[in-house]
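For the sake of clarity, the format in which proteins appear in this thesis is described at this point. The record quoted next illustrates the convention:

___
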Amino acid sequence: MFKDKTVVYTSGTFDMFHYNHLRMINYARSLADILIVGVSTDELVSSYKAAPIIPFHERLQIIEALKTPDIVIPQHTLDHTETVRKLNIDAFVVGDDWDGKYDYLKDMDVQVFYFPYGTGVSSSSLRKTIYDSYHKHLQKERQAKPVTVQADPETESSQAAAARTEKK
C-alpha cells in the first residue's frame, strides 16, 4: 500500500499488441488504484525466447498510449524482487502461461494473479499464422511456371548494332 492505495504491477513483452494483452492490462487495472506496467526489453526477451518483432521503444510507446496504466517502465529482469521493494507493489498480474513462476512474491506479501489467457490469440500464434501464410504464398510462387519472354528480332538487332557502335 502506498498512502492507502493498492499498487498493482503487471508486465509482459507485449509484442504485436493484441486483445489478450489488453484484457490482462484491464484486469490488472480493475485491481489497482495505481497501475504500473512493465514492458520487457529486447535483451530480456531474447534471453529466453525469440526476439520480439516490434522493437522495445515502440512496444513501450504503445503501452504508454493506453489510458489504463498510470506508469509504464522498462522490465530488465524476470526477477521482480527489486521492483516489488522499490515500488511498494501489493499485487502482481501476469499471464497464466507463467503459472507458478512468481509464487515467490507471495513471501513478500504480494498477491499474485495468473491471468487466464485461455485459447485464442497470442503473439506466438500471430507470428506462426503470419509465417505459415507467407510460406504458403512463397511455395505457390515457386511452383508457378516462369513466363518466358520472346525477344523482338528487330529490337534485338538494333540493340546489337547500337552496342557495336558504342564500342568503336
In short: The beta strands are 7-12, 34-40, 71-75, 91-95, 111-115. The CA atoms of residues 15 and 54 lie 6 Å apart. Residues 123-143 form the longest helix (21 residues). The first strand starts at residue 7 and ends at 12.
